Amino acid sequence: MISLKINKQSYQVDADPDMPLLWVIRDIIGLTGTKYGCGVAQCGACVVHLNGEAVRSCVTKLRRVADQEVVTIEGLSANNDHPLQLAWNEANVPQCGYCHSGQLMSAAVLLMENPAPTDEDIDNAMSGNLCRCGTYLRVRKAIHLAAAMQKKEGGAK
Fold first, then answer.
1. Hey, which residues does 102 pair with through a beta bridge?
2. Which of 33, 83, 124, 148 falls 20 to 30 Å from 117 in CA-CA distance?
3. What is the pLDDT of residue 52?
4. CA 68, 74, 77: angle at the middle one, nearest 5?
């Protein structure tokens, strides 16, 4: 049994320690917001937070996350009211929406580390997240919007 903490809830998982975290999250825990995109850490659809850092859950082994803090898209906010989620809606970012849980999780780390990013900062931070629909300009706009919302609220969520 491996102890996990996902979205502030504790779990005991009986699985191969080499199983990718993505499959633990989706198939064992039942949280399906984190998506499978490529399986080789190239697209960013599977990004989650591990102790506040963005990681690709498709290649992160279960053994690595034992007794660590994992946050998935479901844990980003209790009521889908994280400034990024609000900004994503306001800027009409999603088209097909498949990549956006990973996009949001990467953007959340960016704003935690840099509450007032430039276009270049955003482009660099988000370069590992692929969007088949090409919504990159709307993603950038939404991140700027979320940064402004957070500043108005007095800091990152």
1. none
2. 33
3. 96
4. 95
Cα pseudo-dihedral 35, 131, 115, 31, rounded to 10: -10
Whether residue 126 is predicted with pLDDT greater than 70 in this model: the reply is yes
Rounded to whole angstroms, the Cα distance separating 102 from 98 reads 9
Crossing angle between the packed helical segments 83-90 and 100-113, to the nearest 10 degrees: 120
- Does pTM top 0.70 for this prediction? yes
* Dist. CA 48–CA 56, nearest whole Å: 7
Confidence of residue 154 (pLDDT cuts 50, 70, 90): confident
3-state secondary structure 44-95: CCCEEEECCEEEECCCCEHHHHCCCEEECHHHCCCCCCCHHHHHHHHCCCCC
